[in-house]
Write a structure and sequence with these properties.
By secondary structure, the chain is mainly beta. It is built from 4 helices and 17 strands. The protein is globular.
Length: about 250
């Protein structure tokens, strides 16, 4: 049976993807496949500040980490997220959030990766969930059918990629300084009960293509998602494939 959760009080590292990446001096001497991947033994505990909450920051933060041979995180950098309201531009709050998330991630602890039986440096990505709406999302829209919902409920369901469900999905413009870049961009969105995108933020893709993708996502429109006949909020992802020949 699919698991359901209604809320998470602390923002935790919920998705961990780790892989070995040898140092440049050893890259030819070592295989990219470790004997043993690093294992998280002390997760990140991070609670967004009141400033971030008031600014409406939501979604996920993808934090790239460098892990040393002792399992300590020696460097952390936010490489994706957050989402924020389509009607605002809280640059200061976003910057403060990223700084705080990176600082918190440095406290994580791992059992180190091993290669040929010896501990080695490794790199990976930790994903943090932030914001009330995102943290309260159930695992899948179908699973929400098991909940008792009324018209006063602020239930949020989590869906995957929703491009195919859009009533309107404007194409992003291709920035002139990125006209030769071919890539995919992921935009995490919050869709309200009327089917409008009210919050968006790129979590993956080249920096030069993220803002144009976010602006396009904010203009998307969907049919309301109904659970037991009642419209609910949705957290989901819109993906954009940038191919230069298709934008000319």
């Amino acid at each position: 049976m699919r698991s359901i959760y209604a809320g998470i009080w602390l923002t935790l590292a919920v998705l961990i993807w780790l892989y070995l990446l040898p140092s440049p001096l050893k890259i030819q001497a070592q295989s990219n496949v470790p004997d043993l991947l690093p294992e998280l033994i002390k997760p990140v505990e991070f609670e967004m500040s009141a400033e971030g909450s008031d600014a409406g920051l939501e979604g996920i933060l993808r934090v790239a980490v460098e892990i040393d041979k002792k399992g300590n995180v020696k460097h952390a950098e936010v490489i994706g997220g957050p989402a924020w309201p389509c009607s605002s531009s809280p640059k200061g709050s976003i910057s403060h959030l990223k700084d705080a998330a990176e600082k918190a991630t440095l406290t994580a602890k791992f059992a180190p990766a091993h290669h040929n039986g010896l501990p080695v440096d490794s790199r990976g990505v930790i994903t943090l969930v932030i914001g009330k709406t995102s943290k309260q999302a159930v695992m899948e829209a179908a699973a929400a059918d098991l909940l008792k919902i009324d018209k006063e409920s602020d239930v949020t369901v989590k869906e995957g990629v929703v491009n195919g469900k859009a009533l309107r999905l404007p194409k992003p413009t291709y920035p002139g300084n990125a006209s030769n870049i071919s890539s995919q961009v992921w935009v995490e969105v919050v869709i309200d009960k009327e089917g409008r995108v009210v919050s968006a933020g790129a979590s993956y893709g080249p920096e030069l293509l993220r803002e144009t993708s976010r602006k396009a996502a904010c203009k998307a429109l969907f049919s309301p998602t109904l659970i037991q006949g009642i419209p609910v909020f949705v957290t989901a992802r819109i993906t954009y494939n940038f191919v230069p020949s298709l934008f000319r």
